[in-house]
Structures are given as structure tokens and as C-alpha cells.
Amino acid sequence: MLWSKQRYYDRSNKMDSPMARLINPRSQYSPITVIRDRDGPSHKTPQAIRDAFTKYYTALYDHSPDHTHTNRVLMQEIDSYLTGASLPRLPESSMETLIDAITEEEIGKALGYMKPHKAPGPDGFTYHFYKSFAAELIPRLLHTFNDMLTGGIPPPESLMASIVLLPKPGRDPQLVENYRPISLINTDLKLFTKILSLRLDKLLGSLIHPDQVGFIPNRQAFENTRKTADLIWYASAHGVPSLFISLDAEKAFDRAEWPFLFSLLEHLGFPS
């Protein structure tokens, strides 16, 4: 407690994370006291609010219940589309990089990227805990991670998550669709996925079109801003009839089709 007070005294009036938390309105927790559907009544009791969210997200995530791997017609349509798309494909050497056994060095490197006090999952263990006891935990994580990498089933506890609903800034907080669910998964599983992400980072540039700059290493958003400005200038200077369209797919990640995504990875040459 004394350390905490001293740290607050030393840093709360400086351009640092404590001040950022003080002035950031999103850090203030606001309980959901009323919610409504777009065309429905308002719900004010905890049970009714929970039921409204359950109904909304059940419909959202189950929008195509027949779109599964067992739907042969669907899988044939997906395969036909991807076959005609002339997709790039991973070379054999890259495939081996993805499936090589995980090393203690990789776990340590991934752990170094993680912020120590990020919100943990249901088990309550933070990255600070894993960093503090790295020497004892990394060898144990190594065995578990390599078992998962080769097709082993993760412990059931690793697949649990705490789901938090965050209101979208600038939207009506009483509408059920204006919240985004955040799944707080356990730190050990996030560490495993970080290792796979770091391996994949080296390959993304050869698989994803140059026009896609978001979340790709060594690509910057200003590249597309500059390209757009150049296109506007060219169209104006040469009298080229042009149209710019901005598209925003509602709940795009939530509506992603798992059969399509797995088929896409297969066509790109990712190992099963």
C-alpha cells in the first residue's frame, strides 16, 4: 500500500499511465441500468437486460446455422470460389517454420511483449505473475504448448473466458447493438497464440495484398492515405470519372464464417 501511494504521488501529475487513466473517461465503469432493442421496449431489471443481450447475440452468432463443415453443398461452393481466386500459397519451408516445436526462447520472447498488468482471464493470473515466476513456469508451459501445437486438446480451464460488454464511443448506450463483447481469456492461452502470431508475422507480407496495410508488419496507414490523395489528384487532373466508396460491414468479425476461414487457410497452404 505504501508503494502504491508513493507511485501515485510521484507519477500522477506527469505524462504517464496514472494520469492517462485519470483523464480517460472510458476508464470509469458505468453499469448498464437500461437497455432496449431497436424496435422494442426498454429493459431495466438485471434479468431482462441479460435476456436482451442473450437474444441479440444468439441471433448474431447463429445467423447461418446450416453453414457448417458437414454442409457438402456449401463446402463445394467455398472450394470452387477459392480455387478460382488465384491465391498465393505458402512455400514448404514456411510451413515447417509454423509447425516447428516451440522453444523456451520463443515463450520468453512472447512474454516480453506482454504488458504485465493487462486484465487476466477467469483464473486471475496476470502476465506479471508469469514474468515473476518465468524460470519455474516456462518449462511447464513448453510441454503444454507443444502438446497443443501437435493437436493435443487444451485443458478445459484454458478455454474459459470472462465476457465484458463495452459501449461503443459516440453511440447510444441504451441500444443493445451498440456494445461490443470483449472476451478476457486466460493468460497462458493468450501467450500460446502470441507465439503463433509472431511466427505468422514473418509470412503475412507474402500472403496479403499490398493495399491491406492494417495489422501487417512494416506497413503503415499513411501509405493508403497517400495513395488515395494521389488517385484523387490524378482523377481531377485528367478528368477521369471516379467514385470512392467507404464500406463498413456491421459486426464483420462476428459474422465471419468459420468453414470459409478454415478452407481459406487450407488453400493458402497452412498446415492442419
UniProtKB/TrEMBL annotation:
Domain spans labelled Reverse transcriptase: 167-271
Cleavable signal peptide: none
Pfam families linked to this entry: RVT_1 (PF00078)
Domain of life where this protein originates: Eukaryota
Coiled-coil region(s): none
Protein name: Reverse transcriptase domain-containing protein
